[in-house]
Amino acid sequence: MKLQKQLLEAVEHKQLRPLDVQFALTVAGDEHPAVTLAAALLSHDAGEGHVCLPLSRLENNEASHPLLATCVSEIGELQNWEECLLASQAVSRGDEPTPMILCGDRLYLNRMWCNERTVARFFNEVNHAIEVDEALLAQTLDKLFPVSDEINWQKVAAAVALT
């Protein structure tokens, strides 16, 4: 209960949003307090435009979240965040539907993890080049763009885009 009070104080000091605390209490309310804290920090970081929360940011040091130092006294210094998070029903490695996904040393909101996988899949797909009949392309571009003494950059751009 003390952690919940500290999280609410963080809202008053504008370190967290009410949404961050509500998310944490909803998905990890009865879990280990470290899971609740990680959920609140993950939600906060997502609200600031970050895709994930690196576990290294959960270590109690000056470079991490300002809120973390005050909460570590409540939850105790954890030696293995990964083990603690994976023991929670709110966290998985992505093999089952959970609100948070632990992938490597990064904690994601489920939807952010799914989005990142979709983007990665797109870039990892083999893209085959389309064979272009260069003579036909040149003939078509000559019809579309009149001949001139200067370089026609629109024609060049069209040629580059098509090849």
Automatic annotation (TrEMBL):
InterPro entries: P-loop_NTPase (IPR027417), RecD_N (IPR049550), RecD_N_sf (IPR041851). This is Exodeoxyribonuclease V subunit alpha. It comes from the Bacteria. Coiled coil: none annotated. It holds the Pfam family RecD_N. Residues 12-108 form the RecBCD enzyme subunit RecD N-terminal domain.
